[in-house]
Amino acid sequence: MNFIVFDLEWNQSASGKRYTNKKLPFEIIEIGAVKLNSDLEEIGRFNELVKPKVYKNINRITGNIVHLNMEELRNARSFDKVLKSFMDFCGEDYLFCTWGNLDLIELQRNIKFHHLQSLSDEPIRFLDVQKIFALQFEGKKSQHTLEYAVDLCNISKDIPFHRAFSDAYYTAKVLTCLKPEYRERYSFDTFHLPKSKKEEVRILFDDYYKYITRGFDTKSKALNDREVQYSGCYLCKRRVSKPIKWFTNNSKHYYCVSCCKKHGYIKGKIRLKKTEDGKIYIVKTMKQISEEQMQEIKEKYEKIKNQAQATS
Q1: Which residue from 177, 76, 184, 81 is spatially nearest to 127, judged by alpha carbons?
Q2: Which of 18, 39, 140, 224 is a good FRET partner for 87, with 20 to 30 A between their CA atoms?
Q3: Burial class (CB in 10 A: 0-12, 13-18, 19+), 186
């Protein structure tokens, strides 16, 4: 399997939100990519501008960052032709890698706008290099700039940042600095949700479990789904006690704590999300936690419970 490390530059309305096309708020104007083999050796490069169809003037902020002008873009090929070349470059057996999760979303949104064949009709597995960089170097999710990561990894800055190819090039360099176990920390793009219960995403990582549901018409249907509510031990599937039942502090995030005799305390977390067409879906994670972490969640639970009682 090859790794396709790609980056996009996009343009938006130069005249403000009033003139933004809601179906395409960000129009791709450049695609850059580096192809790595399974040993993370570079085996190919892709770099091409895209002729705009929607926004015919460069947004001031975009122009200042990427240093592109409309004359260059007018001479470029159309999105459908550039996309075909890009997908030919990707080949058949590959995994997308990006800095953050926005590029894959915008690529699919542009594909949908132009009525082209979807990359997939289900969630796409990819590597969010920004996320796994933070996990390796800081032990937690955080958002740093690509240049910050390049500096921390002592990577030579031999080409300017903020163009599609250069950012893909540097993202690939950062990827090669990450330990193999972190390259197994897949993310899932949910531009297209699972279509059925059978197709839902269930994946066990080395230290947590992730579950992504299909779409539901309402929040209550999503939350009342049997598998969503389940809070047993994800490691041994044994029955557990539940010292802290599901609770919420903002109606979008729900938490619970279970206790397995073999694996100790297990924290469950539910995140409610909404698709562009209004469907509700859930990303649920389960993870082992310490006694101290359990007490922190318990304190949060008690505080919310007391506040609710005081206002009732």
Answers
A1: 184
A2: 39
A3: middle
**pLDDT at residue 312, as a whole number:** 66
Q: With beta carbons less than 8 A apart as the criterion, state whether 130 and 100 touch.
A: yes
Q: How far is CA 184 from CA 124, 128, 132, in A?
A: 14, 11, 9
**Residues 35 and 6: beta-carbon distance below 8 Å:** no
pTM to 2 decimals?
0.90
C-alpha span between 175 and 169 (Å, rounded): 10
Residue with tokens 């921390």: 152
Provide the residue ranges of all domains of the chain, joining segments of one domain with +.
2-184, 195-311
Q: HSE on the CB side for 145, CA within 13 Å?
A: 5
Note every long-range contact of 287-296, with CB atoms under 8 Å and residues 24 or more positions apart, other chains counting: 287/207, 287/208, 287/209, 288/207, 288/208, 288/235, 288/263, 288/264, 289/257, 289/264, 289/265, 290/265, 291/265, 293/265, 293/267, 294/243, 294/244, 294/257, 294/265, 294/267
Number of C-alpha atoms within 13 angstroms, CB side, residue 41? 2
Give the whole-angstrom CA distance, residue 304 versus residue 312.
Answer: 12
| Alpha-helical regions (H) of 128-270 | 129-138, 146-152, 164-175, 219-223, 226-229
Neighbours of 242 (CB within 10 A): 14
Burial class of residue 133 in the structure, from the number of CB atoms within 10 Å of its CB (0-12 exposed, 13-18 middle, 19+ buried)? buried
Report the alpha-carbon distance of residue 285 to residue 263 in Å, rounded.
16
Assign 250 to helix, strand or coil. coil
Residues 237 and 266: their CA atoms lie apart, in Å, by 12
Which homologous superfamily is 2-184 in? Ribonuclease H-like superfamily/Ribonuclease H (3.30.420.10)
Which residue, 202, 214, 199, is CA-closest to 279? 214
Q: Provide the pLDDT for residue 246.
A: 93
